[in-house]
Amino acid sequence: xxxxxxxxxxxxxxxxxxxxxxxxxxxxxxxxxxxxxxxxxxxxxxxxxxxxxxxxxxxxxxxxxxxxxxxxxxxxxxxxxxxxxxxxxxxxxxxxxxxxxxxxxxxxxxxxxxxxxxxxxxxxxxxxxxxxxxxxxxxxxxxxxxxxxxxxxxxxxxxxxxxxxxxxxxxxxxxxxxxxxxxxxxxxxxxxxxxxxxxx
Amino acid sequence: xxxxxxxxxxxxxxxxxxxxxxxxxxxxxxxxxxxxxxxxxxxxxxxxxxxxxxxxxxxxxxxxxxxxxxxxxxxxxxxxxxxxxxxxxxxxxxxxxxxxxxxxxxxxxxxxxxxxxxxxxxxxxxxxxxxxxxxxxxxxxxxxxxxxxxxxxxxxxxxxxxxxxxxxxxxxxxxxxxxxxxxxxxxxxxxxxxxxxxxx
Lengths: 200, 200
Description:
Two copies of one chain form a homodimer.
Chain A: E1 3-9, E2 14-19, E3 24-29, E4 36-42, E5 45-49, H1 52-59, E6 69-71, E7 77-84, H2 98-105, H3 113-122, E8 135-137, E9 140-143, E10 149-152, E11 160-166, E12 170-176, E13 192-197
Antiparallel strand pairs in A: 1-13, 2-12, 3-11, 3-13, 4-5, 4-8, 4-12, 6-7, 7-11, 9-10
């Protein structure tokens, strides 16, 4: 497949792009162990967006698998997970936000995925919308048998990726998760790369 | 403790009430096996509400335990789970809504928790706010070791209850989960009862 556009997401930032139905997006963990907080809106209905809580219902799972549709808050698939070289992601954890760093670390001005995503979405007129809960690509929350879990380092190695296929015209945004005080990103924040592929 | 107010939530409906800091709310599963979709707003800041996705982060768990604070989207505890005679609840599943019955069952007019909660919240001027994701009291999603799960009948017997303590002035709403085509409520929808207790 032909790469139509390549977008680097620098550490502590977010980026967005538009996909037509049939187009694919490859999100690459350049250096490994970097979580990407990912959101997706229906371009033609800004009240419809990929919604992890509805995905957990429609998939009867808290595990994301190749072939899974990414369901919206209107219970419709907007994209599918077409390929995945890692196999471990999260879709029950929130984006880090102002309150996370303020309440848990006493920091007033730490970069955070919520704000990164909001800025990236503003490029498509979605900056005033509430930021949906993200799919946390490459995030590795390890559950124990009681339902408690530990934030652990991602299993992704340099160059690992996921490939997502658009089923509708969608605006997608991704943030390099800005958490540098937990093992979530291997204790440091690095770049991700998005490649937009032509449809077949 | 003295009961200040007793509210029956009929099948397929929602009810709301106001609690002062220190007051407690007992939610009773009258006939057993009935899920209650529960939401809570800060009365003095309608942009703050109990948020399951943030609770899962702050609690490092997808299991609700006695003593757990119910955290808000601003990562602050608005209530705590003070007592629980069942021990199995859900806080990763969405409220059933119009789209659930339309998409999955082809039904246009099935009662649903989203709308029940919205109507109940309107009594406190919160009817225009997006309905937050609920805590699904008594809901029994049984996870397997891979992260898939099955909707199962609640473990709650007639008279089982949870007791929640308000830490702030809060508006709470609860809906008798209106799902009658799955084992979620033991295949039928029955009443719940809310008792508002005086503070100590």
